[in-house]
Write a sequence for this structure.
C-alpha cells in the first residue's frame, strides 16, 4: 500500500470483499485520511439496500466518514448518461466520486480492482480484438472524468484479500449478480476460476503491453503545429500512429473521434504524395499538405 501517497482520499466501498479489504488495510495508515463512498445501484432490491446498510455500519465502527447515494436520486443530476447499463453505472459512479472529491477537497479516489480483475479485463479485451494499448489493462493511476483514480491492489490476488479478511474476522457482502451468466465478464471470470496458470499468463501479457504502451508514449516525437511530411512518414508505424494521435488531440479533436481510420489518413497524407492534399477530420479540422508541409485549420 506504499504506492498510495499520504493525503486525503475517497475510497470506493461496495461492501464486497475487495473493497472491504482495501478499507481495512487503509484504515491502519496514520498518514491517510479517508472518506468512504458508496453508490446503491438499486438493481437487487433488498439486497442492494442491505449492502448500503452494511457499508454504513462498517464505516461507523471504523470511525470512517461515509458518503452514500442512491441511483434514482443521482441520475436526475447527471447529464449525457450512456444508454448501456454498465456504462451508465460507471458514469454515475464517476459523477459521485467527482462530487465528493470536489466538495471535500480530496486528492482523488482509491478503488479495489485487483489482479484477478486485471486478468479478466485483459481477456475481455483479447476477445474484443484490442491492440497493445487495451491489452495493457487497467493502469495503477488514471484520470477518469476529471477524477484522479488510484488502484493500489492490482498486484494482489482475490484469494489473498479474502484470506486477509478472514484472518481479522471481518465479514463482507457477496453480490449475487456476479454469478449470473448473463454478463460476459461473469462468464470470463468463471472460465478463469481455478486456472491460475492462465491468469498468470494474462497478467504477464498485460505487463508487457503496459511496458510497450509506456515506451511508445516516451519515444513518439511531438509534431509541431506545422510539420514536414518526413517527420511523420519516416517513423516506425507504431510511433507514427502515436505521434499522429497526439497531433490530432492538440488540434482539439476529441479522443473518441480519433479513430484508426483518421490516424491512417493523416499518416497517408504524410507518406504518399499521390494522396489528396487536403482532408476534413472530425471536429471540423481541415488538414492540408502544401510544399511538403502539413498544417491544419478549423
Amino acid at each position: 500500500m506504499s504506492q498510495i501517497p499520504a493525503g486525503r482520499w475517497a475510497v470506493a466501498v461496495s461492501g464486497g470483499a475487495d473493497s472491504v479489504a482495501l478499507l481495512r488495510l487503509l484504515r491502519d495508515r496514520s498518514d491517510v485520511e479517508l472518506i468512504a463512498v458508496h453508490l446503491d445501484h438499486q438493481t437487487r432490491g433488498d439486497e442492494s439496500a442491505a449492502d448500503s446498510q452494511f457499508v454504513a455500519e462498517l464505516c461507523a465502527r471504523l470511525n470512517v466518514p461515509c458518503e452514500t447515494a442512491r441511483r434514482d436520486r443521482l441520475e436526475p443530476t447527471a447529464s449525457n448518461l450512456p444508454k448501456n447499463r454498465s456504462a451508465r453505472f460507471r458514469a454515475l459512479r464517476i459523477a459521485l466520486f467527482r462530487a465528493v472529491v470536489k466538495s471535500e477537497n480530496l486528492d482523488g479516489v482509491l478503488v479495489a480492482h485487483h489482479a484477478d480483475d486485471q486478468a479478466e479485463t485483459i481477456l475481455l479485451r483479447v476477445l474484443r480484438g484490442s491492440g497493445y494499448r487495451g491489452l495493457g489493462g487497467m493502469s495503477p493511476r488514471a484520470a477518469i472524468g476529471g477524477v484522479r483514480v488510484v488502484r493500489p491492489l492490482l498486484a494482489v490476488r482475490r484469494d489473498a484479500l479474502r484470506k486477509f479478511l478472514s484472518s481479522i474476522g471481518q465479514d463482507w457482502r457477496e453480490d449475487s449478480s456476479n454469478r449470473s451468466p448473463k454478463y460476459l465478464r461473469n462468464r470470463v471470470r468463471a472460465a478463469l476460476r481455478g486456472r491460475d496458470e492462465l491468469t498468470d499468463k494474462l497478467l504477464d501479457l498485460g505487463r508487457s503491453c503496459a511496458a510497450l504502451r509506456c515506451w511508445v508514449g516516451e519515444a513518439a516525437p511531438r509534431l509541431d503545429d506545422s510539420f514536414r511530411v518526413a517527420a511523420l512518414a519516416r517513423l516506425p508505424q507504431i510511433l507514427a500512429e502515436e505521434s499522429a494521435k497526439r497531433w490530432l488531440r492538440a488540434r482539439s479533436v476529441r479522443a473518441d473521434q480519433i479513430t484508426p481510420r483518421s490516424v491512417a489518413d493523416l499518416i497517408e497524407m504524410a507518406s504518399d504524395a499521390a494522396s489528396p492534399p487536403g482532408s476534413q477530420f472530425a471536429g471540423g479540422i481541415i488538414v492540408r499538405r502544401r510544399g511538403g508541409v502539413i498544417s491544419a485549420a478549423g
